[in-house]
Description:
Layout: H1 21-72, E1 115-117, E2 126-129, E3 145-146
Antiparallel strand pairs: 1-2, 2-3
Amino acid sequence: xxxxxxxxxxxxxxxxxxxxxxxxLVVLAILGLLVALAAPRVMSYFSRSKxxxxxxxxxxxxxxxDLYRLDVGTYPTTDQGxxxxxxxxTGVAEWHGPYLTRRDGLDDPWGRPYLYAPSTxxxxxxxxxxxxxxxxxxxxxxxxxxxxx
Length: 149
């Protein structure tokens, strides 16, 4: 019995076994278009989330500063800075910290240390971040974020 020509492994395929280059290019063009349209919106959400994270961290630092003041009697000095919330400053006997558990909590979402202006005349100290650009002032993601309300 002779083998059927339809089942011969040497027979060429009809071109329906894969995708053509044109089909792949169309799919890539559609994906590129979707990414081009979605990327700005995603980046906007990402920048707003960093600003929100900074606001939450500053609030947490304010709470830790209040706990420090309750224990020690005063807010940390300029020399002690925010590090006094994690490491006991020299000569401070009533320190019962650490008041913050994470050392990286003293850095803003852009990787720079939060700025600390100590208390004057019993007013609560100011904790701030200079935003994404690291410069005073700015708008949007570059705006300063501060504990002063």
